[in-house]
Amino acid sequence: MSFCFSSIFITVLDIASNRYLREIKNIKSFNNPEKYMIVDSLLIKQTYDRNEGTGDVFRFDLEGVLLSDNSNLNLAVSFSEYVNFNLKRQPLYKSKLTGDYFLKDAPKQYYEGKNRGFYVGIILKIAFYFIIPFLLYHLIKYINTRKKYRL
Q1: pLDDT of 13
Q2: Is 66 helix (H, G, I), strand (E, B) or coil?
Q3: Contact status, residue 58 vs residue 109, Cβ threshold 8 Å
Q4: Which of 70, 56, 112, 69 is nearest to 103 (CA)?
Q5: pTM above 0.85, yes or no
Q6: Which residues, other chains included, contact 71 with Cβ-Cβ below 8 Å and sequence gap of 6+?
Q7: Exposed, middle or buried by CB within 10 Å (0-12, 13-18, 19+), for 26?
Q8: pLDDT < 50: residue spans in the chain
């Protein structure tokens, strides 16, 4: 049941915020970084380890300033092992298609995790088109049986 609600929520939210094809565009960017990615750098101001005292399985955030336009960025990284703290500036990729930022010199596991997340988002959006007719069918069936047994 939570899969159904997740699918409906994510799809409606992405349609409303005009981000419906974001996962597909990010996969396209990952598969061809020379064409669809811009290299940028993040001057790290602060790091947050969200694991301490919370129920999160993994959550590590970087907060800093982008060197390209001096704007602030908060980047969720998952694991602190993906970040090279020996560098003063963390290299980033920025997708030309979506504007999303990703670590540039991260281990293979980072990119695999991001890709898995993109594919899960696509699956949830596809499932939406199967869930809605199913729910409508059962709603109509329920309404018809209520009308039938009314006194």
Answers
A1: 86
A2: strand
A3: no
A4: 112
A5: no
A6: 65
A7: buried
A8: none
